[in-house]
Amino acid sequence: MHTNRRLCAAASVAALLLTASAAAATSAAATGTRHATAPAPGPGLAPACKEKDLTLKVTAAPTPDVLALRFTNNGTRACTVDRIPTVSFGKLDGAARPVPQVGSAPYTVGAKASAYATVRTVLAPPSPADVRVVRDIVVAADPAHRGRRITAAALGLPAGVRVYDPVTSLWQPTAR
């Protein structure tokens, strides 16, 4: 008997939800309203940075196997990128992993401001033979961007960029 009541209650709730969804769809169609496919930025969160508004600079650091990254927001308003830089290496699979190990989250950079990160391209290889050498890298301030291809020669590394288990810092407001 209780099972029958539970089934009736569940069926009533399902019917109510379906009716409400159909009514909302009919109302939206009648008024020409469209639902957003992506959520709008939350309160206080700047919009996503447009790649065309960013300038990216990559240099080989004085420390071997380290690259210094900087991007500048040339826009007139603050904007957000992912807090983890996207750095891939030639035709190798994958990208530099973040240290500390964290998930994606927005990083806001002000108008005309810069953000900095560091990439260590070689991290404790088991043997020198395990290190790969690539002729170019691709760096993007955000994974949604295409990024910029930079040759090893442009970085002052004519023999190529050495790679083994690369890691990246998160974007930060100052160069360290």
From TrEMBL:
Cited InterPro entries: DUF4232
Keywords, sorted A to Z: Signal
A Pfam short name: DUF4232
Signal peptide residues on this chain, from the entry's feature table: 1-24
Domain DUF4232, residue spans: 49-157
Superkingdom, natural source: Bacteria
Protein name: DUF4232 domain-containing protein
Organism: Streptomyces candidus
